[in-house]
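FORM 7B: Structural annotation worksheet

SECTION A. Query
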Amino acid sequence: MNFALFLLAEADKAAGKGEPANLWEALVQSPLAMLPLMLVLMYFLLFRPQRARERQQREALNNSLKKNDRVLTNAGIIGTVANIKDDEVTLKLEEGRVRILKSTIARILTAEEPGKEAKQEPAKSP
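SECTION B. Predicted structure
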């Protein structure tokens, strides 16, 4: 509120000196006034779309997770889903079992494995 009043006062002062008379011109010419405008623009162009993408990816991951899927956690642990409760997943590892939160699962490896095997096989030449 005070910032807007300050800008209006500056616009009134400038009107008598041959400087910008309206509020928009005062905003554009003042570097201090441009900072909040740039921050708002960055929020809508960068941060908000990124959050939406992350939320969609997280929801898709949680909805498609099922028993016997091989998963990779954010900590780099690879295991097979043994049990799924509300926000908790039990992973089977080579040496035992681990209980983790669903939110720590980075991706499901089961769907990716067939494609990786096809890429790793060397091409046979006749």
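SECTION C. Observations
Residues 66-119 form a domain with the SH3 type barrels. fold (CATH 2.30.30.100). The beta strands are 70-73, 78-84, 88-92, 97-101, 105-108.

SECTION D. Sign-off
Analyst initials: ____
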